[in-house]
């Protein structure tokens, strides 16, 4: 499967010797970069979702370093606190950041921050979450509606295979209401499931919290009865883990199929052992590196052309949208393992070893 639509931004960077791998850059903008350095600010929203600290941050920082040794990354994590993120962004502007890469805690409320940057002529790249209400330089993310469609289709296929599609209720556990991506996932999933399954309990989950998802699943089981829940549409893996914990606690002999997203290590292990049906594998390396390439290109005076545009309610934002991949147990080897996202020894701990062998992962 073709996973991403990318303009070869890195090729443009060869023009900038200060961040390239060749010439001296004498008499160019790159020589100024080499003398003074540039500051690239990266803001991530939280750490409850393991991907941000385990993948997004180190991959972004490594790519910036590879492309521009003299570029400094100013990194901040907001711990799901919008006020804290505001302080972090304002601090980076004060510190002279040349470009902001912003994964907003509340993407519908950060337009004033983006406006502050624009007044200082600092370009902004919306990372992972689409910022609304204002125009800015770029948006780098995945096709989020497609993510939801894939989750809905996978759940429907699992229910059909078990013959339970019309025999009970589906619980939907959506993401944070302050994350516009969550609305896209919901839209995509419902476009597939509406009219085909009965959805009786549906939750938005503040902070994408696994603990809150567990509480929500417990509420659903109590309200519906254990035997009536035939499937769970969970928007990500962390919340899927919370829902699975609730179902185990409720005494399910066989867990109903449940979806996820992010290919968290624990989720991949659950998929192999049969506790979780699937995850959406997002090539976070591609996303982080695309954002890093754009940021470095911007600080070197480049303006790469994006292959798409996404409307945010105010403007059409130049966008790089990467393709998600649906992964069930039989696809782990040829996607997650093949790409080196996790090594077999990371996945195949003793309690997962037999499942790994069954699926050809050794």
TrEMBL record:
Residues 40-302 form the Periplasmic binding protein domain. PROSITE patterns: PROKAR_LIPOPROTEIN. Residues 1-22 form the signal peptide. It comes from the Bacteria. InterPro entries: Bact_Solute-Bind_Prot2 (IPR050555), Peripla_BP_I (IPR028082), SBP_2_dom (IPR025997). It is found in: Cell envelope. Keywords: Signal. This is Sugar ABC transporter substrate-binding protein. It comes from Nonomuraea longicatena. The lineage of its organism: Bacteria, Bacillati, Actinomycetota, Actinomycetes, Streptosporangiales.
């Amino acid at each position: 499967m073709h996973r991403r639509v990318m303009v070869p931004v890195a090729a443009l960077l060869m023009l900038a010797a200060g961040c390239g791998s060749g010439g001296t850059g004498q008499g160019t903008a790159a020589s100024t970069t080499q003398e003074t350095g540039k500051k690239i600010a990266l803001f991530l929203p939280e750490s409850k979702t393991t991907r941000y600290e385990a993948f997004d941050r180190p991959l972004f920082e490594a790519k910036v370093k590879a492309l521009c040794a003299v570029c400094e990354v100013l990194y901040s994590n907001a711990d799901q606190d919008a006020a804290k993120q505001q302080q972090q962004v304002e601090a980076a502007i004060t510190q002279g950041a040349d470009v902001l890469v912003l994964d907003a805690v509340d993407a519908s409320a950060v337009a004033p921050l983006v406006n502050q940057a624009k007044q200082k002529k600092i370009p902004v790249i919306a990372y992972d979450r689409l910022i609304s209400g204002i125009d800015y330089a770029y948006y780098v993310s995945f096709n989020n509606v497609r993510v939801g469609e894939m989750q809905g289709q996978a759940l429907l296929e699992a229910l059909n295979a078990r013959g339970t599609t019309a025999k009970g209720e589906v619980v939907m556990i959506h993401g944070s209401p302050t994350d516009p991506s969550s609305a896209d996932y919901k839209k995509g999933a419902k476009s597939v499931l509406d009219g085909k399954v009965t959805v009786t309990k549906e939750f938005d989950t503040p902070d994408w919290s696994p603990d809150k998802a567990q509480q929500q699943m417990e509420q659903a089981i109590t309200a519906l009865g254990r035997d009536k829940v035939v499937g769970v549409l969970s928007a990500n893996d962390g919340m899927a883990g919370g829902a699975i914990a609730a179902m185990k606690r409720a005494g399910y002999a066989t867990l109903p199929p449940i979806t996820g997203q992010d290919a968290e290590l624990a989720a991949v292990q659950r998929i192999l052992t049969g506790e979780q049906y699937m995850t959406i594998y997002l090539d976070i390396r591609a996303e982080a590196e695309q954002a890093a390439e754009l940021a470095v290109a911007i600080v070197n005076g480049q303006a790469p052309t994006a292959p798409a545009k996404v409307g945010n309610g105010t403007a059409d934002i130049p966008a790089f949208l990467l393709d998600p991949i649906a992964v069930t147990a039989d696809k782990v080897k040829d996607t997650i393992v093949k790409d080196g996202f996790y090594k077999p020894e990371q996945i195949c701990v003793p309690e997962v070893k037999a499942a790994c062998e069954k699926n050809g992962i050794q």
